[in-house]
């Protein structure tokens, strides 16, 4: 957390320095401004200035607000503008391409800031942090809609992108009691979609970014599960250099649907329907265990 102190005005302002230090409202404010940058509707300098204003409660003309709210001099106003650029750029990663600075937005948090969403008088509930409480079926369907959304965006199919985004969110968010979601049933998705359609786009965009980062963490970062460190990255091998260069064709499996059939065939969690309702992390731990066993067997 950044603390901005102005002794002359006896003012102290705290600003988040990472997503995990943000409130839900701050997340919405930052992502709303960042979205304009990503769409080419706002420069990065405007992002830092406007984000600083949002996080500190300053509005309208920056210099005027600094002077009116903080009682500062013109020189101090200039310093505050510089500080705004220094303190509010963290949501973007700075990189160089062809000698030019590029800014890449990063929503790198596995914290779900939207565990409960209220639409009118109705509340719907989402997953725990890092997708800890979702089933294998939820993950499969959500992942399908996530890919469909990406495809529609690349093809400039705006209507298809919005539809698939709503379906994606509906896989995770549904009514429940005492904060606990009702069991997932893909056949009942249509009943939740009218509610999902009323959620502000930026909030759904946040959920999409959050999911993407959670999957990235699961695939690349060692996690502690019930006191044991497990590295799921062995389940998701990176493409070889030859594959990246197009010199070799990457092997294609049957994906998550094939995984479902294989595990259901083993009967370890029951039939297909029972396997679908098994926790995603339980499935991943089982796959990890089998992979380790196969690696050990191949080394004998």
N-C termini distance: 52 Å
| Poorly predicted tracts of residues | none
Order of strands side by side in the largest beta sheet? 1-2
* Largest sheet: number of strands, sense, barrel closure: 2 strands, antiparallel
The count of DSSP E runs of length 2 or more, i.e. the number of strands, is 10
Mean pLDDT: 86
Supply the number of structural domains.
Answer: 3
State the helical fraction: 40-55%
List keywords for this structure.
300 residues; alpha+beta; two-stranded antiparallel ribbon; 13% strand; globular
Structure explained in plain terms:
This protein has about 300 residues and is an alpha+beta fold. The chain folds into 3 domains: about 1-105, no CATH class; about 115-220; about 260-300, no CATH class. It has helices at about 25-40, 45-55, 60-70, 75-85, 135-155, 160-170, 190-195, 200-220, 240-245, 255-265, 270-275, 280-300, and strands at about 1-5, 10-15, 90-95, 100-105, 115-120, 120-125, 175, 180, 225, 230. Strand 3 and strand 4 (about 100-105) form a beta hairpin. Helix 6 crosses helix 7. About 25% of the residues are buried. The model has no long low-confidence stretch (mean pLDDT about 85).
């Amino acid at each position: 957390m950044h603390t901005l102190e102005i002794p002359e005005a006896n003012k102290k302002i705290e600003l988040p320095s990472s997503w995990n230090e943000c409130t839900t409202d701050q997340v919405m404010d930052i992502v709303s401004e960042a979205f304009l940058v990503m769409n080419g509707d706002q420069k990065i300098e405007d992002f830092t200035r406007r984000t600083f204003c949002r996080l500190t409660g300053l509005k309208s003309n920056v210099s005027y607000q600094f002077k009116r709210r903080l009682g500062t001099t013109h020189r101090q106003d200039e310093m505050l503008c510089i500080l705004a650029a220094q303190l509010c750029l963290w949501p973007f990663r700075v990189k160089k391409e062809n000698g030019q600075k590029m800014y890449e937005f990063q929503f790198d948090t596995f914290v779900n800031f939207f565990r409960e969403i209220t639409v009118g008088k109705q509340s719907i509930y989402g997953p725990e942090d890092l997708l800890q409480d979702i089933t294998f079926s939820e993950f499969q369907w959500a992942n399908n809609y996530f890919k469909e959304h990406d495809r529609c965006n690349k093809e400039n199919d705006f209507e298809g992108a919005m539809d698939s985004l709503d379906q994606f969110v509906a896989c995770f968010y549904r009514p429940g009691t005492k904060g606990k979601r009702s069991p997932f049933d893909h056949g009942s998705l249509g009943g939740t979609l009218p509610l999902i359609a009323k959620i502000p786009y930026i909030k759904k965009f946040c959920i999409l970014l959050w999911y993407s980062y959670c999957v990235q963490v699961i695939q690349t970062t060692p996690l502690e599960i019930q006191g044991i460190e497990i590295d799921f990255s062995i389940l998701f091998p990176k493409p070889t250099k030859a594959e990246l260069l197009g010199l070799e064709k990457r092997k294609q499996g049957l994906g998550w649907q094939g995984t479902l059939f294989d595990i259901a065939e083993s009967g370890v969690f029951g039939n297909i329907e029972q396997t679908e309702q098994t926790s995603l992390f339980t499935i991943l731990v089982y796959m990890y265990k089998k992979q380790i066993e196969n690696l050990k067997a191949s080394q004998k």
